[in-house]
Amino acid sequence: MTRKRRDTRIAGLCLLALLSLIGLMAPAAQGATRYLINGTPVTASEAVKGISGGLLLLIPELSTTLKCNLETLEGTISIEGKSDRTSTYTKCSVAGSTCEVAEPIVVKAKGELLAHGAGIYEVLKPLEGEAFTLLKFKGAGCTLPGEVKMSGTFAALVESGEGTTHQTFFSPTINELICKIISPCGVKFGINTATIEGQSLPKLNGVNKGKLWGVAIMPEFTVGSKPLDVVLQEHKLTSESVKAEGGTATISVPSYLGFGFVIACNQSSGSGTLEKLGRGSAIFNFKECVLTDGKGIIQKGCTVESVKAETSFLANVSEGSPFLVFSPPSGEAKDSIIRFTVNGESCLLLTGERVIRGTTIGLAKEGEAITQGVTFLKSAGLTYGVDSAYLETTVGLSLSGVSAGMKWGMR
Known about the structure:
This protein has helices at about 15-20, 170-180, 230-235; strands spanning about 5, 30-35, 40, 45-50, 55-60, 65-75, 80-95, 100, 105-115, 120-125, 130-140, 145-160, 160-165, 170, 185-190, 190-200, 200-205, 215-220, 220-225, 225, 240-255, 260-275, 280-295, 305-320, 320-325, 335-345, 350-360, 360-365, 370-375, 380-385, 385-400, 410. By secondary structure, it is mainly beta. The chain folds into two domains: about 30-220; about 220-410, Porin.
């Protein structure tokens, strides 16, 4: 099958170029394993549906192999890497036997993503009770029981990256690997040990039908070494407040009209929130600002006021180095992220409110700290009209809600 594919992404094409430029495209080594749609963690349940070539159920102790040639799958993926699925198998037979198996075979399971080594797996358990399904056999000379429960826990390897169709693979080798780290584990055919071979090929089938989707290890915020999700749940909250304090900041557009301009500010501050799934928001206010040309000459008679960056952000970690991807509140790079007002009669810039659009990043430090320093890099991603723009500053973010004064970080 020919499939439209792309590597796992966390934003649009301009962000890809930005991350590539600074060498931060490697996947996160730790964090929370999530489903993605178009590179962004899912925030609500999404329907999936697919048709594949079925599976093999092998029962070595009984020298029996049950083969089904067609699977029709329906289910959902949801936040926190969870899912449910109903697989309907048809065109089934028992290899080398007079036994006939009743069709359709309907297997109902719930899943949860698990990162292990270099792979991401889905651990599947019965949706309800102890059994995935009840298998029924008949036929002259059939030595299998008339009814047998298929139960237990098994794992599937989830294909990396994103595509319109996303494969999961089942095999005895995969199950053996994951059964070393989870317990109880293993598939049962009645009282006998069984293994599964096959693959599923689900596509999105809800409001995001036709879009790229997949899985990834997404960084998460921690507070006092606990995942932020746990802290928020303990306090029955949806977010934790943060405050920002910083020093000088510059907003530069070097190629504007051939000679460029710089807004230099002496003070920066702000506030925002930390949320689940490594998300957050922040508003930064820059004060005591002056406008200079590209040579650093102050533009007398011009004032720059109300310099503000309104952002949403998403955490990421590359090779142990955490960073935040800052975007407009809408999440769309085409929208404004920085606004400022220019006044004066002989200004380098047109007077009135001006906007800068796009996406940028801020590097953080490893480990937890009461104040996390975030350094905005001079990297591609922001634009002023058709010209590249850059934000350079360092701000300290500290918790100001129920966890005020505690250490926090990303992992």
